[in-house]
What does this fold into?
Amino acid sequence: MLLILGLLLGLLLNTFWASKERPNGSTIPKVPISEQAVRHFSEALKLKTISYMDYGIDSSEYLAFNDWLELSYPSITNQLSHTVISDFSHIYHWEGKDQSQDPIMLYAHLDVVQVIDNEKEHWQYDPWQGQVANDTIWGRGALDDKVAVLGILEAVNYCIANNIKPRRDIYFCFGHDEEVGGNYGARKIAEYFKNNGIRMAYALDEGLTITENLVPNVDKQVSLIGIAQKGYCSVELSTRIDGGHSSMPSSETSIDVISNALSELNKKGLPSRLTSPVEQMLATIAPEMPFFQRVILSNKWLFGRIIKNSYEGSNVGNASIRTTTAATIFTSGQQENIIPEQASATLNFRLLQGDTEKTILDHIKKVINDDRIEISVIGKTTPASNIADTNSEFYQKVEQSILDVFPSTIVSPGLVMAGTDAKHFMDVCEETLYFRPMIMHPKNLHTIHGINERIAIEEYKDFIRFYIRLIELN
Ligand SMILES: [Zn+2]
It folds into this structure.
């Protein structure tokens, strides 16, 4: 009985400990954002800076974007040094008042994905017209990620006009091919920094956002600042077994061998675990949850298994707690009455912090346990990123900027599941945070890379205000 009482007391203490006060946004007045900012955004959305999967681009649209940049922001053109990389990517350098500290980088990508032909008719407004209608700006790139290129430019423009100068040096960098891997944009920008001995203390890239009704059991908006991104590794499994006429098949064909291997890998995933970004997120949002969930989340030592089980129940949750396995390509056979000799499949893994290429290869060998299958890594593996420190000066400033503009949101660290251009900056940047000050909810989530991508004008203005505040604080 005493033991049970002690246990209960421990649970409750942890629960109330988790209810501690969090920093609050000061009620600073909203700075006025001009209508010109909306016009600029609309104009930029008309330029089709599209990355196609075959790496083809329409260079005339990108060159038009370069010209438009120079003409639309004369004070930036005049006062900041500007370097063009690979013809279409941009580095702007703004010297701060204090040269003793390493610079920071605000990063965004200016390319967008295409609008698929048969989807175009479903858009409420033409995706390439930068339509401003119903207090909203419509078009491809309104959320991913041209909004950030424009938002950062407007913030710098505002700061220059209002004599606000950052303390540290700030680099504003805009890559032009993030949607197809960033090999000519971000990677070359990183090389430029390396070759010139420039090292960033911190960077801010895309990745997570303000969420509304997306974090289960939390009613308030949650601003998730990504503090790490998962890695990326693709592996091919292939086999060659005598084929022949399909009227007299052997008991196991090449297709059977590869499909069995895939089936085993699907059943036995890599082990799950709660890494620091997820643990920190749970600790931050637990106090906002109903009592029962709060008790569970505040007592991971006892309910760790329950928490992991509930995470495994959804795709997003599952991807947060393990290196995921996804079969993406299967190649074999050409004719219906011939058993093919060869079969192969590609698996794409997204690495959780702590797992490496070797972890994956060992796991595959152990699970499939079949010498007939050759296992090879495709391309270059991107390791999982390091984990940024939430006590750092930069994290605190990003958090403060969020709370100053969006005072009612909860700010929490989080893990970025997809890969962003920041993967190219691992050698030239100490720590990266992943956040965009835009509100994502179940109704607009699918518009990214989808139909009717748009942002409310007032939300775009807050987007700019966040970057103004961040520059002021730095
Ligand atoms: Zn993006």
Notes: The chain has two domains: 35-229+385-473, 231-382. The longest helix spans residues 457-473. Residues 33 and 461 are 6 Å apart (CA to CA). The pocket of zinc ion is lined by residues 109, 144-145, 178, 206 (CB under 6 Å).
